[in-house]
Specification:
heterodimer, A: alpha/beta, Rossmann fold, 6-stranded mixed β-sheet, globular, B: alpha+beta, SH3 type barrels, 3 helices, 6 strands
């Protein structure tokens, strides 16, 4: 069985897509915050069984609010095979921030460019092939309310699941370059994290390094018991010199 | 134009000082902690252009256009957004 999770900004149509794909009828509403906890459903596509989880909308994985924590904790702890990132095509710029954070986390992504009709109506032109090439993952235009593109989306999920292992071995694309100020400390902190097998098992080292450099208190707290004190001291000093270099 | 004039014409203002139709570019977010993180997640970062669409009668909330979408901000949130405005 393929495990896939739906994630995206609030009010982009995640639950509508979830209902369409699973045949369930979770409550949808045209305002943010309708889904406050995760819901699961199943579908069968081309003889492949897919378990789908619908997560509350979130702008980031920075855990600024409880509803954002639900999504972050789920994907970190369960590590679903595929993350389906529902992006509002009519509001691409804000939505792609979450996409980049997911790429940092080393997930197999499938991107749905939802509300494709709305984007077209507003005169927004997006080249899905180019976006797919730049981000290194499949990009499927969809219109959840009419069901347009949803078969393509199911195909992409099933295909990505088979390719997941192979893709991971390939050279990674779409990983954000944070520039000459930030990449060296990210690299150094990643090196320290990589030495700790317990941490590597839990989450991608690069993502963890970035979170630590951002001063994510929850991450520092959760890793307190896992990091040895010399490792922790090393990371804190990397953070300090990284911050000093930016002043 | 005399050199330096352009720079001198730009003024720093809090977002709440702007009237509907006026716009500026974010130079700083003076909030901290949760609020700062949340605002940055939504794309309120240095360099973003923000235009005031309309204000509620008491000036709270204020609706702005940012990166092609509308965002409603409370007065205390808007106070923490410092813009560079052409005057």
């Amino acid at each position: 069985m393929i495990q896939a999770a739906l994630i995206g900004n609030p009010n982009v149509g995640k639950t509508e897509i979830f209902n369409r794909l699973t045949g369930l009828s979770s409550k949808v509403g045209n305002f943010p915050g309708v889904t406050v906890e995760k819901k699961a459903g199943k579908l069968v596509h081309r003889e492949k069984e897919i378990e789908l989880v619908d997560l509350p909308g979130t702008y980031s994985l920075n855990a600024n609010a409880i509803d954002e924590l639900v999504a972050r904790d789920y994907i970190l702890q369960e590590r679903p095979e595929i993350i389906v990132d529902i992006v509002d095509a009519a509001n691409l710029e804000r939505n792609l921030y979450l996409t980049l954070l997911l790429l940092d986390m080393d997930f197999s992504l499938v991107i749905a460019l939802n509300r494709w009709d709305m984007a077209e109506a507003r005169g927004i032109k997006i080249n899905p092939e180019k976006l797919s090439e730049l981000l290194g993952c499949p990009v499927v235009p969809t219109v959840a309310v009419s069901g347009q593109g949803l078969d393509d989306l199911k195909d992409s999920i099933a295909k990505a699941a088979g390719a997941a292992e192979r893709e991971r071995a390939k050279e990674k694309k779409g990983v954000m370059d944070y520039g000459t100020d930030l990449e060296p400390p990210i690299g150094k902190a990643s090196d320290v994290i990589r030495q700790n097998p317990e941490l590597v098992k839990r989450c991608p080292e690069r993502w963890l390094a970035i979170r630590m450099l951002e001063g994510d208190e929850m991450i520092m707290e959760q890793t307190r018991a896992i990091l040895s004190s010399p490792e922790r001291a090393k990371i804190l000093s990397i953070i300090q010199s990284g911050e000093a270099a930016l002043r | 134009m005399i050199e330096g004039t352009e720079a001198r014409c730009r003024k720093k203002k809090q977002l709440i000082e702007l009237k509907p139709g006026e716009k500026g570019r974010i130079v700083a977010i003076s909030a901290s902690g949760y609020l700062r993180g949340r605002m940055m997640d939504m794309g309120l970062v240095a360099g973003s252009e923000v235009k005031v669409i309309r204000l509620a009668p008491a000036g709270d909330p204020v609706e702005v256009l940012l990166r092609g979408y509308s965002l409603a901000l409370r007065r205390n949130e808007a106070m923490n957004i410092i813009l560079e405005v052409d005057s």
